[in-house]
Write a structure and sequence with these properties.
Its EC number is 6.1.1.14. InterPro entries: aa-tRNA-synt_IIb, aa-tRNA-synth_II, aa-tRNA-synth_II/BPL/LPL, Anticodon-bd, Anticodon-bd_dom_sf, Gly-tRNA_synthase/POLG2, GlyRS-like_core, tRNA-synt_gly. A hairpin with a 6-residue loop joins strand 5 and strand 6. The two termini are 22 Å apart. The protein has 435 residues and is an alpha+beta fold. 31% of the residues lie in helices and 27% in strands. Bound molecules: adenosine-5'-triphosphate.
Length: 435
């Protein structure tokens, strides 16, 4: 684990995980581009999430809703209400926003109690505005979605009518969200364009608190086990029970899962009980009918939500390690951008290169298809190992002169740095078992 965000930013830039956005034009503040390795890491996080929560569960189905929705969605959800388009100041410490007319500048922040922390007042709605069609008129205003959640609410009946879902069930979505944050920063922690993985989990109107608490607890456990699955040490996670008054207006209970980022304990994920607030606002009639009792009702919602970018950042901070000169990302193999690397011992020996290519192809195209695999034929082997360690590649395979004689290769393990010699025909199964 690292306590230096600079080391992570530098590694990400140097090795092609994350670049400053629009860099050749002087950049664009707080925008970031995921490079060749970053996109693999991010996709691996999303794949793991989808597989775990959609494919491996019978009670959750997927959705991919439009980014630009009818502005009425944002009226119903409360995002366009007066509070959102007032003059706002933001506390630079806790990022809570307040109506400028309700705050005295020289007083401490009512949320976190810090002094001298307010930004200048601004006319502010967090949503990015745009226009549909050529005329830039009020009637054509539309917004980029500030959260993925509303897609699941708005499509609730469509999903219900087309899938064999009965309450309790969930709708899951991964996608971009946009917020015109007043104080973005801390690398990819807070940006104006980011990606979310969200589930809206619908339950029958609870008869008592136990009814929803048990589902809430199930999701709390699921979120903890997800954090372990991506390699986060739960000792670095802090659950914050958000007190009444600080919760979003629709929430009856919220837990923030905070991670020990190098810049402090900060929200990684959230879990909220949104009651029937959203469906009631979108549907004037109860949208769900219980097949057994015949009762119609507005289901209640438990919402676990994950930031993709914050997941990637936490994983990078957690797995970064140094061993003398050697820098290592101890990524779970499922998240590693490359599953293995293959090296011909010497680049100027055509026999070695041809043999290494043959092994490369057999792994990539073989029945267990191990992808992607890095190819490196530059510099000495020690440097190549270090180079792969730094990007988290779990295994390095070297093809040397002995390979030409007896078809064995060396396989070196990133975490132990131990090497073993394996017959070529056992290589694929060895990798599959250990990945
Ligand atoms: P914060 O308090 O940090 O502003 P939030 O409580 O507003 O976050 P939610 O609306 O609950 O965040 O969004 C769900 C998740 O989306 C967060 O837990 C976080 O992982 C991610 N997220 C929210 N805002 C951003 C952002 N500006 N940049 C990157 N990720 C974000």
């Amino acid at each position: 684990m690292t306590d230096s965000i600079e080391k992570i930013v530098s590694l990400c830039k140097r090795r092609g995980f994350i670049f400053p956005g629009s860099e050749i034009y002087g950049g664009l503040a707080n925008s970031w581009d995921y490079g060749p390795l970053g996109v693999e890491l991010k996709n691996n996080i999303k794949k793991l999430w989808w597989s775990r929560f959609v494919h491996q569960r019978q009670d959750i189905v997927g959705l991919d809703a439009a980014l630009i929705m009818n502005p009425k969605v944002w009226e119903a959800s409360g995002h366009l209400s007066a509070g959102f388009s007032d003059q706002l100041v933001e506390c630079k410490n806790c990022h809570e926003r307040f109506r400028a007319d309700q705050i005295e500048n020289d007083k401490a922040c009512p949320n976190c109690d810090k002094k001298d922390v307010f930004t200048e007042p601004k006319q502010f709605n967090l949503m990015f505005k745009t226009f549909i069609g050529p005329a830039e008129e009020k009637a054509n205003i539309a917004y980029l979605r500030p959260e993925t959640a509303q897609g699941m609410f708005v499509d609730f009946k469509n999903v219900l009518d087309t899938s064999r879902t009965t309450v309790p069930f969930g709708i899951a979505q991964i996608g971009k969200a946009f917020r015109n944050e007043i104080t973005p920063g801390n690398f990819i922690f807070r940006t104006r364009e980011f990606e979310q993985m969200e589930i809206e989990y619908f339950i029958a109107p609870p008869k008592d608190d136990n009814d929803w608490q048990s589902v809430f607890d199930m999701w709390r456990e699921e979120m903890r086990s997800w954090m372990e699955a991506i390699g986060l040490d739960l000792a670095h996670i802090h659950e914050l029970e958000v007190p009444e008054g600080e919760r979003a207006h629709y929430s009856k209970r919220t837990i923030d899962f905070e991670y020990d980022f190098p810049f402090g304990h900060k929200e990684l994920y959230g879990l909220a009980y949104r009651t029937d607030f959203d469906l009631k606002n979108h549907f004037s009639q109860p949208p769900y009918r219980d097949g057994q009792t015949g009762d119609s009702y507005w289901p209640h919602v438990i919402e676990p939500t994950w930031g993709v970018d914050r997941s990637a950042l936490a994983v990078l901070c957690e797995t970064y390690a140094e061993d003398g000169e050697r820098k290592i990302l101890k990524l779970k193999p499922s998240l590693a951008p490359y599953k293995a690397a293959i090296f011909p011992l010497l680049a100027n020996k055509p026999d070695l290169v041809a043999k290494a290519r043959e092994i490369y192809k057999s792994l990539v195209n073989g029945s267990s298809s191990i992808v992607p695999i890095a190819w490196d034929d530059r510099g000495n082997i020690g440097k190549r190992y270090y180079s792969q360690d730094e990007i988290g590649t779990p295994f390095c395979i070297t093809v040397d002169f002995q390979t030409l004689e007896d078809n064995t290769v060396t396989v070196r393990n990133r975490d132990t740095t131990k090497q073993i010699r394996l017959p070529g025909e056992k290589l694929a199964s060895h990798l599959t078992e250990n990945l």
